[in-house]
Amino acid sequence: MRLDKWLWAARFYKTRSLSAQEIGKGRVHVNEQLAKPAREIRMGNTIHVRRGDLDITVVVRALSHARGPAPVAQQLYEETPESAAARERAAELRRLAPEPATDLQAGRPTKRDRRELERMRRSQ
Is 14 helix (H, G, I), strand (E, B) or coil? Predict the structure, then answer.
C-alpha cells in the first residue's frame, strides 16, 4: 500500500495530497529512511511523522485503502511508548506555558494614546 494513502486513511493528514506534500518535504520517514509518497509500506514498518513541533513514531498494525472513522483509523497503527511520552510532555509544557496575552496590559494604543506619544516626541 502507498505511504501517502495510508497516512491519509490513518488520519494523520486531512487530504491525500497534503500527506504527499509533507512526505515530499521530508517530514515522514519509514524505518528511519526518507520516503517518497509512492513507497510501499507493510505491517510492522515504523513510520516517523513530524507535524509542527510534534514528532510521532508509530508501528503499522494494519492496512486500509479507505478512510474511516477515527476509532477505526487508530487501529491501523500503534504509537511507540517513547513517542506517546514525548507527546504528553509537550502537551503538559503547552498547558503550563504562560499566556502570551498576559504581557499586554492595555492592548493596542488608542488614538488618544498615539496623539500623546506624538506630543512627547515633538517636545523632546
Answer: coil
108, pLDDT greater than 90: no
Q: Helix (H, G, I), strand (E, B), or coil: what is residue 103?
A: helix
CA torsion 28→10→84→92, rounded to 10°? 100
Count of domains forming the chain: 1
Distance in angstroms (rounded) separating the CA atoms of residues 27 and 49: 6
| pLDDT score at 101 | 66
The alpha carbon of residue 116 and the mean position of all alpha carbons in its chain are separated, in whole angstroms, by 44
SS3 46: strand
Domain-located, residue 12:
yes
Helix (H) / strand (E) containing 57:
strand 54-60
23 within 8 A of 37, measured Cβ to Cβ: yes
Return the closest-CA partner of residue 83 out of 18, 14, 41, 29: 29
What number of residues does the chain have? Answer: 124
Whether pTM exceeds 0.70? yes
Whether 24 is covered by a domain: the verdict is yes
In a domain, 69, yes or no: yes
Residue 90: inside a domain, yes or no? no
